[in-house]
Amino acid sequence: STPVHSDTSPMTLTRYMIQVAMDNTDLEHMQDMQSLMSSIQLACKKIASLVQRAGITNLTGYEDSGSINVQGEEQKKLDVLSNEVLKNALRYSGKMGVIASEEEDEPVMVDEVYSGNYVAVFDPLDGSSNIDAGIATGTIFGIFVQNTGCLASDWESKIDETELTCLYNTMQPGANLVAAGYCMYSSSVMMVLTTGHGVNGFTLDPQIGEFVLTHPQITIPSRGKIYSFNEANSPQWDPVLRDYVEKLKTGDNRAGVKYSSRYIGSLVADVHRTLLYGGVFGYPGDQKNPNGKLRLLYECAPMSFIVEQAGGIATTGKERVMDVIPDAVHQRMPLIIGSKDDVQELLDMYAGDK
Ligand code: P6P
């Protein structure tokens, strides 16, 4: 049952996590999630303030060093800063064993003194190219349990290659996630989180500097009226997907409804709108980029966990995103995600059913 929020007793994210941990002593990891979320929300509050003041503090634009990240993208000042803020917050939580970030070439092991048994994967500031235009961006994170043999207590006895194995066996499928969430920096700052028992949304109240429960137990509508794809790529899409989107446009679909198109170009904002309003978002593979553009480990998998927990579907087009075992930290993966009936209609078209 969702704890009650009132003006005289605001249901903050901190209080919510304490209450859920108390009410569910049987649920593994809930105590640890409490302290992890306290670190993550601190980092997101800091990133929110950096993003909102970027133009004032001359933090828009690119790194003076012109540094290029492993994605081959020129790093924005805020990309680097947000990564440091989140890495430090996670390190000092005392729960982290290894962290993998879009902004880090390789996974980073947290030094023993602060080490714990969890693995964090994150995109510290997704959509940062939108910052200079004041368009929504977000932080995406996922939490895994460190694999056995790689627990903090084992590190002392680690020899190099085992250490390397531990660093790389953080490449777990989304089905192993124990928590996932995103913080969206937009007209409001919203933290949306799942620990495997539903999805809850918290809005940052600037008056008290706390995330407050505003969207308890989010469920995605079974069907929406919005599709969200970068249609500039449609000439390279596979014919089934082109046909599916065409049917959304003409109304010749199972709902008999003509859909609207909305595409912000910021994964967190496009998925958040899809989660609340329903419909379908996709960044599919195409002839040019067979695996699309989005990263499996710290973009597709956490978003898929959230949407599945809200009653939606997240697929690569061929299989459930959360079943895919990554073989590289920055591996790209096609993503079609959203309302159950919307995504199922596409999957049935791929299977040859009309
Ligand atoms: P395109 C932002 O750069 C991002 O990684 C996601 O946030 C977003 O969904 C996607 O790329 C947009 O890509 O090719 O449509 O501009």
TrEMBL record:
GO terms for molecular function: fructose 1,6-bisphosphate 1-phosphatase activity; metal ion binding. Residues 220-350 form the Fructose-1-6-bisphosphatase class 1 C-terminal domain. It is an enzyme of class 3 (hydrolase). It catalyses: beta-D-fructose 1,6-bisphosphate + H2O = beta-D-fructose 6-phosphate + phosphate. InterPro entries: FBPase_C_dom (IPR044015), FBPase_class-1 (IPR000146), FBPase_N (IPR033391), FBPtase (IPR028343), Fructose_bisphosphatase_AS (IPR020548). Pathway: Carbohydrate biosynthesis. Pfam families: FBPase, FBPase_C. Its cofactor is Mg(2+). Residues 11-216 form the Fructose-1-6-bisphosphatase class I N-terminal domain. Its EC number is 3.1.3.11. Belongs to the FBPase class 1 family. Homotetramer. This is fructose-bisphosphatase. It comes from Gracilariopsis chorda. The lineage of its organism: Eukaryota, Rhodophyta, Florideophyceae, Rhodymeniophycidae, Gracilariales.
